[in-house]
Each structure stands twice: as structure tokens, then as C-alpha cells.
Amino acid sequence: MVDGMGRRAIVFLHGCPLRCLFCANPETSRAAACATSSCVSVQQVVDRLKRLQSYQLDGITVSGGEPLVQPQFTAALMREARAQLGWTCTLDTSGCSTRAAVRQEVADTAAQIRAAGVQCITERL
Ligand code: SF4
């Protein structure tokens, strides 16, 4: 088990406002990385993940960098991974984002949990 339960694919997103000395992925937050990284759509990422289905993965972990720097992309990626692959989704975050983005992610996640049949949820931030 690394970065979540079971066998997982990890999607590393670019960008992080912090500069931790111990960062394992400093290239994801340095400006120089922009020259070698590319912009992809949510569907392009999901299509790449579909190629991994033969490995019988349990889910994806969205990491970085800081995934909440791109909250809409992160939420859409997790939504489509669940819908198209049936995989669980884990968010690897420092929580370093705007309060509104975190609030929205908590609300979206709570809605998905309720949709799965769990009725008693307390959302706090
Ligand atoms: S928050 Fe995480 S990704 Fe960002 S600099 Fe620190 S260790 Fe690296």
C-alpha cells in the first residue's frame, strides 16, 4: 500500500505554492518544469488510465505538487475515474489551497458519499 489502499495509479499534478525542503517531487512545483510538462484534458488522463486496467488496480491517487491548486481539474478527474473506471479516488494534499476550493471539494465528496447510501455525515471545515 502506497499513497492509498490497495493497488493504485498515481496522477501527479503540476504546481505547489509551498517549497518544502523534504519534497519528494520538487520538479512538480518548479517553474522550469513547465517547459517539459504538457497540458492534458481530464479525458486524456482517463484514457491513459484505461490502459492500466489489465493490472486490476483499485483506484487512483491524485497527488503532486498540490492537486488543490487545480481544484476543478482534480474534482473532474476523480469524478470521471469513478464513472468510467469504477475506481476509488484518493486525494494526496497538504490542504494548501483556497478555502473556497477546499469547501467545494468537501461538499462534493459528501454528496458522493450520500449518493452511495450513507445518510449520516457531518461536514466541518
Ligand atoms: S506541499 Fe508537498 S508537493 Fe508541495 S513542496 Fe511540500 S512536499 Fe512538495
From TrEMBL:
PANTHER family: GLYCYL-RADICAL ENZYME ACTIVATING ENZYME YJJW-RELATED, PYRUVATE FORMATE-LYASE-ACTIVATING ENZYME. Its cofactor is [4Fe-4S] cluster. Keywords: 4Fe-4S, Iron, Iron-sulfur, Metal-binding, Oxidoreductase, S-adenosyl-L-methionine. CDD domains: Radical_SAM (cd01335). InterPro entries: Aldolase_TIM (IPR013785), Organic_radical-activating (IPR034457), Radical_activat_CS (IPR001989), rSAM (IPR007197), rSAM_sf (IPR058240). It comes from Tetradesmus obliquus. It comes from the Eukaryota. This is Radical SAM core domain-containing protein.
